[in-house]
Amino acid sequence: MKHLIPEFEKMKERFPAGFESSLVLPCLHRIQADRGFVADEDIDGLVAYLGVPRVQVEEVLSYYTMLRREGIGRHHLQVCRNIACSMRGAEGVIEHACKRLGVKPGETTADGKFTLSTVECLGSCGTAPVMMVNDAYHENLTLEELDRLIEGLVVEERAGEKR
Ligand code: FES
User: Fold this and answer.
1) How far apart are CA 92 and CA 86, in angstroms?
2) Is beta strand 114-119 parallel, antiparallel or unpaired with respect to 75-80?
3) 99 near 110, Cβ under 8 Å?
4) What is the 83 CA–ligand 1 centroid distance (Å)?
């Protein structure tokens, strides 16, 4: 993460001195965008750079489900399992996605192409059930739509392999 320090320095300019802990979240976002996840050495580097307690960085990492500690597949399916989505069929969506992909929540397919995660509220309760595929929201999700989405991604992957 050392190569990101010039960017972190620019971010730092926007905060008053003594507010280093406010930089933990934006720095972790930037690290993840760079590496795909946050590694142990990134935590060590950030603790040393910001001078904040390690537990502060780990708290942020464990609270925000969008921050990852391991690499994921090329397509990340995140199904909300919170109350509104649960009441509107999220469990069935999760079960169906597990069957289609052959993985459990938190796992990546053997070919490294798909990771399935369950997450807490995605902030779109009025259109439950909701799933994110990479950065896109899919709302009022049905099992048929889930099948279409997965099939579309499989076709996209196959086309990529032929190129
Ligand atoms: S409960 Fe699923 S988006 Fe809020």
Assistant:
1) 9
2) parallel
3) no
4) 7
User: Does ligand 1 have an atom closer than 6 angstroms to the CB of 149?
Assistant: no
The CATH T-level fold of domain 75-162 is Glutaredoxin (3.40.30)
> Ligand 1 pocket, 85 CB below 6 A?
yes
**pTM attached to this predicted model:** 0.78
Is 123 buried (19+), middle (13-18) or exposed (0-12) by CB count in 10 A? exposed
Which of the four pLDDT bands, split at 50, 70 and 90, describes residue 157? confident
| Residue 111 buriedness (CB in 10 A; 0-12 / 13-18 / 19+) | exposed
Taking the C-alpha atoms of residue 64 and residue 138, their distance in angstroms, rounded to an integer, is 20
Q: Is the pLDDT of residue 82 over 80?
A: yes
Q: Cα–Cα distance between 130 and 122 in angstroms, integer? A: 7
- Whose tokens are 């580097």? That residue is 45
